[in-house]
Amino acid sequence: MDMDLRQRRRASLEFLGSVQHFAGRTLQSAAAAQYEAAVPAPPDSLDERRESVHSTLDGSSVWEFDRFLTRWVAEEIYVRALPAIEEIRGGVEKWLDVARPSGTLTLDPDLVPPAYWEHGFHLAPGGWDGHDLMGPAISELVFAYVLTPGGVGAVRAGENLNDQRSQVAGETRRTDYEHVVELGASSGRFTFALRRRLPDARITAVELSESALRHAHALSADKGARIDWWQGAAEDTKLESGSADLVACYTLLHECPAEVNLQILAEAFRLLEPGGDLMISEIAPYEHQNAFRAVVLDWETENRGEPYWREVMALDLHRALADAGFVDIESYGVGGGVYPWVTRATKPAA
Ligand SMILES: C[S@@+](CC[C@H](N)C(=O)[O-])C[C@H]1O[C@@H](n2cnc3c(N)ncnc32)[C@H](O)[C@@H]1O
């Protein structure tokens, strides 16, 4: 959508993106260099790494300003994004009222979202659906202006989070899937990449947030991208058993408690036909990250509205996949790094 934002609103969001980029690139790399010079052989366990980084960098202005600015940007995002979208509400609502849909939108008026989902994720007031225009606000304003310059969470300063989704879509084991189910689709950032990769497949995109789904549905119409948007929980989609030959998700798992992750894997197994594939993209386990980076990532749990991050990172995903019945399990960094990180697995053919 062409968001007709007032110049002042756009500039104030772009400023947050620049601050985040500066913190993530300049301050954080200086802090990393200080830590690595002071502790050439850091410990391995997360608790020891956290203690080591915090005590070594205690009083370091680059470290403390990096953390301060990262938290400040997160606090400020919705203070700026929600009034900005309110100001253009008329145009956004008109655009959301899709005249010529591409694909379908199925909302569930009886849906009771799981209690864990209503936390203030990413410090968004009220969580994922805390405002009726939260979906477009997150995608069109927060992603476009604040998160795209990178420098927060797993996305490094200068990396392009949309390119990363396209890269991951390019990692499906096959290209002849007939029915793809994506879990935790939000407004479709990864879904549209799957659409491009698998032009002939039917795609059902599952998401809890009504505001994100309505936004996704309007984007589909704009792009002429046929996608069926389905409101439901990833752990209990209510879709037909054995109806998919690919189930995929992008940064869903760390948003749900670890025990729900296990339910999501079981649901993916149920949805897949024998021989079908599962592809997950998530943050790489900490053993693949250096000590400083692991602590920066883990910091999100307590400081940037990521309540389940730490417990999910502690989950042995390969073991959980095997316990759920999957075989041919593998994980790797796409492009040789640690993010994006992909895990692929298959439901046995017989
Ligand atoms: C970090 S976003 C990722 C969105 C998208 N996959 C992407 O590539 O940007 C996580 C999304 O998962 C959704 N979500 C969280 N828990 C869910 C659940 N149990 N079932 C369905 N969606 C869920 C959230 O509402 C949010 O839109």
Number of helices: 12
Please count the beta strands (DSSP E, at least 2 residues each): 8
Radius of gyration: 20 Å
Molecules bound to protein: S-adenosylmethionine
Q: Averaging pLDDT over every residue, what do you get?
A: 95
Please state how the strands of the largest beta sheet are arranged side by side. 1-4-3-2-5-6-8-7
Low-confidence stretches: none
Give the name of the CATH architecture. Answer: 3-Layer(aba) Sandwich
Distance between the termini: 45 Å
Residue share in helices?
40-55%
* Helix-strand makeup class: alpha/beta
Return the domain count: 1
- Series of secondary-structure elements, N-terminal to C-terminal: HHHHEHHEHEHEEHEHHHEE
Into which percentage range does the β-strand content fall?
5-15%
CATH topological fold name:
Rossmann fold
- Sheet with the most strands? 8 strands, mixed
Protein described:
- Helix content is 46%, strand content 15%.
- With 350 residues, it is of the alpha/beta class.
- Strands 1-4-3-2-5-6-8-7 form an eight-stranded mixed β-sheet, sandwiched between helices.
- Helix 7 links the parallel strand 2 and strand 3.
- The model has no long low-confidence stretch (mean pLDDT 95).
- The protein binds S-adenosylmethionine.
- Residues 117, 128, 165, 184-186, 189-190, 206-209, 212, 233-235, 250-252, 255-256 line the site of S-adenosylmethionine (SAM).
